[in-house]
Batch of 3 targets.
Target 1
Amino acid sequence: MVRLSDLNDVEAEHMRVRASEMQPVPPAAWITPKPLKDCTVAIVSTSGLHRRGDAPFKVGAIDYRLIPGATDFGDLVVSHISANFDRSAYQEDPNIWFPLDRLREMAVDGEIGGVSSWHYSFMGAQPNHAALSNAGEEVGRLLAADEVDVALMVPV
Amino acid sequence: MRPPRALWVPFALGRPLGVAGDAEFQKGVLRASFAMLQNAVEPTIEDYPVEAPVESGSSEWSCPVSFPVADKKSISARLLAEINLMAPWSAETRAARGRTLFGVTGARPDQVEQVAVALGEIADKGNVTEVPQGDISWQFEMPLLIRHLVDDLRTFYHESMAAQPGDNVPNHDALNDWIFSGTALGDAIQAIAQHLTRAGDGASLMTRGFLVPEGHLAGGGSAFPTPAEMNKNPKI
């Protein structure tokens, strides 16, 4: 996450206001996972990524999209609504938002146990976290059913 | 969100793993995140101590291609002229990368001109309610489609910049300053922002906020609805 001092003044003030309006979220259950070299990792992104054939995210979307582990980056587009972050780095290297190649390399090198067959994408810039709770819990159940040990959550 | 373990990174928005094209830098961020799985004993936010290389701001970077000075032609005509100037560069980048991000609107990657015509006509004619004509199956309704027409064209513009000579990597501010300092795309965005202001309904005013990056609305201030506009539209 960027430093507020590195943002445009108007955007920084917007972030301060939004942060002040956020409601407390109770802590998640504390789980100590198995050794990393045995863990399967899935990415949960809030960058608004999805496959070209998927319905795009609309304003305030609280649903999610599935991204297959074998996906080709050329099959992904982004319908995140914000104009206040730059897409050019992602255009150059999609791993900067969605580090699928890096996880594949770390699995080959034995640093992690494996890469999940499925990853998940949400629309970011959500002012109301409570509205996301059903979809979030659903994704949690899917990750557990898929025997994923670690959810790597990557905001943009 | 309240993840049990969080790594705060000092990178610009749009660069959560730090540096595009630098696998080792990205893995450093991932390794620091994963280390918390073994080391943290309670909910933790840790600061990542490594800065990303500084990208070029507006004073260090400029677009090497000169566009015609704005004249009396329509925005549509100027937009098409810009697209034609940049098309060979964008094609180079697409060929080198083997992919493009263009197409979230529903357009095929080769339908850049159609997207430009759609946006240019909205800018010239001011119709922010009717879906543009043509053979593209648009994936959004109006006025939100405008936001994504712009995003597809910015993808194309960024592709064209990426292929041009020079090692400077422009940052978000430099790219925005370029777009909004006389390109037909920037002029189209500003014209449409005015049309959305005149439309005055909640959806139009919010679309204006999504359309113009903060700090770049002609006349200053936030592009999102002002308090006075919100008072007129209590549903915003």
Target 2
Amino acid sequence: MRKSTLVLALLATGLGALALEAGHGLVRAGRDGPAISRMAKMSADLGLTDIALFSEARFVRHLSQADLFSPFQDAPMSFEHFPTGSLASPPRRFGPTGGFASTIGKEGGS
Amino acid sequence: MKTWLARQRYLVDFTLAAALRRKGRNAMLLGVYALMIFILASVIFFGSALRREAAAALQGAPEVTVQNLVMGRHALAPPQWLDKLRHMRGARHVQGRLWGYFYDKATGANYTVMTPPADKPDYALKPGETIIGASIKRLRDGRNLGWLMLLSPSGKLFKLKIKRTLPETSELMSADLVLMARADFLRFFSLPEGAGFTDISMQVRNRNEVAKIVEKISRLLPTARVITRADILRTYENVFSWREGIVLAMLSAALVAFAIFAFDKASGLSAGERREIGILKALGWETSDILAMKFWEGALISLAAFIIGVAGAYAHVFFFDAGVLAPVLKGWSVLYPRIHLTPSVDRLQLVTLAFITIIPFTAATLVPIWKAAITDPDVVMR
């Protein structure tokens, strides 16, 4: 067999595998749709506000509900104790460029 | 057309024969290249699927959440706030929520303890009963005895009958939840009746009025901190982008190393290769033939690496639940949801990945070859 035939056949097999994976994605998306809807309904029924991906500290368990100073309660510039805390982004408005200092009086420092 | 195709196939044959003469070098290049694409594509797939699932689940989050701040710290919201907010025009389903955190010394895990809303019969609980998340079930009731024992913060032992477990498919939202009746919750945390609520959630009749309602709440309750659903969604969008960014930043050193490695391999011509080009030219090959041959070499390697990397990344994230990336997200959490992500591929990101990997590499192989190919064969061979 010519080398080019073998290599092109291998590449075609690879592209076929990608196509199969794309098909798998579509099938799974269809199959998991009801489960995702059930999860959304459960969140709505219980009034859940955050995802339970990180539970090591309260300010990362409920990222949207935590106050600004929780991750830095030891000192404003201290190193974060929990790895997840270091990986969570600071709020968009935090810092002088984000307008945090100008809204602190108006919104109670939230 | 047929002649052109036949010509290209002969060029591919020739390229492969030349590549096989440098088996070790090319195999290593293909391996490193595919590994790089595998890692990048894994991050893209994982982030995109997680983002989509979280956004779908958070669509049901309360439209507005009101917290009480005392001395800049989160405090219980007084029960009177409920009446004030219920009388606000445009507000509906105003509910006081009771929830808190509990550190379980027995397992070292943190739970979110919550009382379910009174008007949801699916989650109705009698005192002494509990509904728990699937991760807690695995951690605390693996033998299926049907009881959850908790030592309350004040040192009292609580024995709760597990009424049911929340579905495993919703672990992303409920892994660490312990739902208990209001009376149990108050006793568990030693709270007096009428202590207030952790926060107050509400819906807004007209979604366009959310900003107005927030403004009214801030005026009515000056110590309140108001969080809207849009804030929540934005927070998670930020977090996922940030985490993806952190992973990519950690990988950036590896990426740069790969770029140098690939560029060196692709652009640096060995003396042997120069000689080869000289001989080909002396035999009558056109510059365009040599360029086409080298184009095939670059294209075949980068295409093969792309296919291997992307197919492997898909299998890694959606068949093996992202085993390599998960530790980055887990941190120190004892309780971690078992999530089987639903595939969601961001096509734009994938196309971008293809462009930033295949094209520069193929281009990098062509430039030095072109330089060598336009030189006089006699000079090149010397």
Target 3
Amino acid sequence: MATITYREALNQALSEEIERDDKVVLMGEEVAQFKGSYKVSEGMLEKFGSDRIIDTPISEAAFSGLAVGAAMMGMRPVVEFMFWSFCYVAFDQIFNNAANVRYMSGGLINVPIVFRGPANGGTNVGATHSHTPENFAANTPGIKVICPATPADAKGMLKSAIRDNDPVCVMENTILYNLQGEVPEEDDFIIPLGKANVVREGSDLSIIAHGKSVHTALEVAQTLDETHKVSAEVVDLRSIRPLDTETILSSVRKTNRVLLVEENKPFCGVDAQIAFLIQDQAFDYLDAPIKRVSAIDAPQAYSKSLENAQIPNHDRVLSKAMELI
Amino acid sequence: MEGLHHDTIVDGEEDDSPAKKQDSPVEEELVGDVRIEDFSEKQINHSLAPEERVNLYEQMVRIRRFEERSLRSYQQGHIGGFLHLYIGQEAVAVGAVSVMGEDDHVITAYRDHGHALAVGMDMDECMAELYGKKTGCSKGKGGSMHFFAPDKNFWGGHGIVGGQTPLGLGIAYALKFNKKAGSCLCFMGDGATNQGPFYESLNLASLWNLPVVYVIENNGYSMGTAEARHSAGEPLARRGDMFDIDWSVSHGHDMYEVRHTINDALERAHNESRPSVLEIVTYRYRGHSVADPDQTYRSKEEIEEYKKSKDPINLYKEKLIAEGHLTEGSALEIDRLAKEEAEASAEFAQASPLPEPTELMDDIYWETDNPASKTSQGTMFFETP
């Protein structure tokens, strides 16, 4: 095991896959000379050259669509969005073209492409730069969506995504880029998509989360244990589509109480689907209604104090957990 | 002709534009009210063997008869949704595809039947797709707007106006990345020239020296909105100029002119890896989709006048007869065979089975279609038949 940052883990995944497969290229705004807006691709231009690490103009619709066209021809492009919020100007290319070409061609054409970048609030940048579109990406059949929360997951899942023959949206988090964690050093470390992770075992309550909310959930679980003698289990979804329904349901059958936590906005958010799943398939195991903490249902606020209140934080999650006990 | 002001551009002051790469006309004649240059002596046409010339005629007739037959099926209720017919524009797809080489590729918008048949797709699979049958080219999942044949370098069939313009760029990019001396012909309508991704694509095409040829099939109308009401600045192809892209305007009713124009652009793509914007002025006889009314934005007389003076199939037939490669009798025989083939395709489509509801779940993810090679875990679908 080596201790590296989430950022370094992404860099390793990209570098290893570019070395492994000559069809893989990384393209996006500032990924080459500038070394990535968040320095994820540091050193890669020098190592792999400008044919593989490609700076694009600020022109998401064109370079996203270009990458889809190249993927249709058999390449494996990785498209970096400086923020996932910017995918909105490339919506047609991702959610019409990448998502539907395989289906509309009766399976004749594959689109092995990765769209990746940060999708999070909490950085004081206002409504236009703080979207978390994992819910509507996952609402699109043909697309896969993952939200790695740790350096190991970032590396292992991004590598899986690049090798996948279907379009995968990788939603990262700028606040996690500096997070350190242990990452296996084995040659070909891979984490399959669609495999949730029980990151803390518990018996009284299941807190199910994804992305940065996993870390909030872990902090709350610690407080519950230390202050209230409540044993909370924390499940990190890791992948939204495909979804590890079995791990979710087995945790619910074990603890009989569920708190869902996500940074998505509540209406039609990812956890709306998870709540439906649990009541549909584990209703008899529930000892209390499913509770949920999401972002407060307003456009993302700029002011730090407002945004801190808006995103699921320790106190909001803790108080909702206490309602369940 | 009122409402066709895009035609006046071709014959107007733009002729001496430095970006226009056409040679001076070898010979001029008047057909209807439009001056036509004679492109038959251009190298790409001069070298055509007699049977190749006749084949181009056959291809156009096949497309027209196929679409007329599909229109009847639509009216009989066998075909649903939209049916955007290409009737009137046939010389553009047939002429363009006829000059393509092995590594040249095609992508187009939703008016795609002509391009599909021109690249060699079978009438049966196309008609069956319109009928929503299992034997259709997309197993009934794509429909009229979404035909694909990657084995014939044909990448669709795209329903969103202008949405295919970045994809064409990507096809050209992949060819260049793989060091192929090929290109991508990216067809679009005049209406698509007002979509943002088109301009973003032009910028990247020129910036990165990509071998993509944007072919604006200007039929004068963006759905029911005439060019004069949808586009500022004429001609539309001049929009390539601001990105330093070679552009030209040419006639789409002249098979030889289309071939010459496209061939020039392909050579530029192959030899210089440079993009082009070609505006090819043409006309559609039917509504935007067949269910749309024509009378709200153009007159019957306008359509009849075009048919009379500039029908691409008639003009080419007259040329071939004059050249001695075709007779009225052999033209009739070609027509009869095309009608038979179209009729047979409708019978094939009618007799073909419908897809089963369980087939809804096929062709979504590569992985779920190839379970033996599956690497992901978990639930992929949340409601299934």
